[in-house]
Predict the 3D structure of the following.
Amino acid sequence: MKLIPNLLSAARLALAPYLFFLLWRHEYASALAVCFFAGLTDALDGFAARRFGAASRVGAYLDPIADKVLLSGAFVTLALSGAIARWLAALVVGRDLLILVAVAAAFLLTSQRNFPPSIWGKASTAAQIAFIFFALAQLSGLGGMRLVEALKWVTAALTAWSGIHYALRGVRYSGSFQHTSQ
């Protein structure tokens, strides 16, 4: 039972190349189905980890890595194929890279090992997921152009704000670290 959440996260990560292939080939209906399946496995791995007490250190890293690979890769692939605005993909991926660099620096330079997501980070991720899902639905011919346009701006705003929020949190933490270490 304890392996189920990690297997679901690993399956989601393994789906990433196939999703990117579908996106590159403009097979949006199939990509939408893969995204739906990935979302289902994400919900199930979290449920299984909580319900069966199967949370693990590996899962704590594997789950968000799988999410970020799928999301960032989807944004990049859609942007490179011209299906979505490149600036939006750059904002999403840029924010994630800045957070990754900051976490790596904190990991190397401090004793900090816990990097919980903020409410703004979670809201940004939710907006990004909704944008990709509805953009794929619209690209599949299911309509929703106005919704996708609105979600683009909501995603941009939440992504930018969460990046600023994480930066402020990092500066605040590094300031308190300097005071306590002297």
Q: What stands out?
A: The chain has one domain: 4-181. The radius of gyration is 18 Å. Residues 145-181 form the longest helix (37 residues).
